[in-house]
Amino acid sequence: MRGEAETLLPPTAIEEICEFIQEETMTSSHAYSKTRRLWMSRSLQLFMLCCVSTFMFSAQEPQRLPQAKPSDCAACHTGNSPLPKDHAPTAGLVMADCLACHARGGNNSLTGKLPLSHVHQLQGVTCGKCHDDVNSPEPVAKGKCMSCHDMEKVAATTAGIKPVNPHTSPHYGKKSDCNLCHHQHEKSENYCSQCHKFDFRLP
Ligand code: HEC
Ligand code: HEC
Ligand code: HEC
Ligand code: HEC
Ligand code: HEC
Ligand code: HEC
Is the CB of 169 under 6 A from ligand 6? Predict the structure, then answer.
């Protein structure tokens, strides 16, 4: 009870605040004084500076542009290139072309290095095939993944993965949510590693 009472403002403080608000509304309803106008233009300048620098800063972050070609890295990566300097040109390539130099499971594999959304887009799975409304995208539920991926088949392809098959377990059977491990727009994560030491290589 006491702690609560102490956090309340004393009546005098409330009076002071009311007076201050009254004064403020009075001055703003009258003609501006010269100093006030100067202050206004200063704050406008500051505001514009903030806008411009925010714009310049955000231009460095890659953008999720639904209309960009997936192989045109620079369209969205307007800041630093995501590719090494002397990389072969990627314009017009699809995932199969990348795999010629970046074989799955090989030393130069892209697994874990390229966001899964990119892997999808380079195979013709555009933004709109996952997001119903690309102009205002919402997180995608598992049902959408299942419309293309048959879990029986997926679990069969990974049956030989050591130490255990990531797509089946005594806890969840074959029903675990894909998004627990596979993320489309950030690094995927090993959900089982909370409790087990399974050394998975997650796409
Ligand atoms: C449609 C826009 C778009 C295109 C085209 C695109 N990227 Fe990206 N990329 C992004 C975004 C946005 C991120 C941040 C993660 C996210 O939101 O998906 C990202 C993240 C990455 C990352 C993870 C590291 C980082 O910088 O965050 C790599 C690597 C990458 N992109 C490589 C590429 C390569 C290589 C290409 C061309 C073959 C490419 N991207 C084309 C938008 C794009
Ligand atoms: C002609 C062969 C070739 C093709 C085709 C190719 N790459 Fe590469 N890529 C390389 C080589 C070589 C490297 C450098 C590997 C290194 O430095 O370890 C590299 C590096 C990368 C890297 C940086 C990896 C890292 O370790 O940070 C990314 C990302 C990448 N490539 C994406 C792609 C994508 C996406 C495609 C298809 C659109 C593609 N590459 C097509 C040969 C190729
Ligand atoms: C293979 C399916 C897939 C593709 C392709 C894909 N996304 Fe996503 N997207 C997801 C999933 C799943 C999420 C939920 C969070 C996550 O995994 O990062 C998401 C989250 C998002 C979000 C955040 C939504 C929110 O409210 O949190 C945006 C924005 C978005 N995606 C835009 C795009 C755009 C634009 C593209 C194409 C350049 C794209 N996505 C391609 C599956 C996809
Ligand atoms: C419109 C169809 C479609 C949708 C929707 C879709 N995928 Fe895919 N996905 C593909 C295709 C095509 C491939 C490439 C062929 C393959 O490896 O099966 C692929 C590949 C993958 C891969 C393997 C990538 C690799 O590098 O080995 C994973 C993991 C994956 N998808 C997970 C998901 C998840 C999780 C979702 C839901 C958020 C999803 N997919 C939604 C069509 C789809
Ligand atoms: C416990 C984490 C985990 C969950 C949950 C998970 N996966 Fe995977 N997935 C993996 C790992 C690890 C691999 C890579 C296995 C390998 O080849 O080393 C993989 C690989 C894949 C592949 C590529 C298989 C291939 O080699 O052709 C597809 C497709 C895929 N997952 C789809 C899904 C879908 C769809 C769901 C949801 C129903 C899902 N995954 C849920 C961990 C997971
Ligand atoms: C919250 C902790 C937790 C998480 C997360 C978890 N497990 Fe387990 N798991 C356990 C425990 C505890 C046991 C032992 C239970 C028993 O023996 O009855 C076990 C046993 C197992 C076993 C049988 C024993 C063995 O080690 O061979 C398998 C296989 C397994 N888990 C796979 C998985 C997979 C795959 C995932 C991720 C999709 C996962 N677990 C996530 C706690 C967890």
Answer: yes
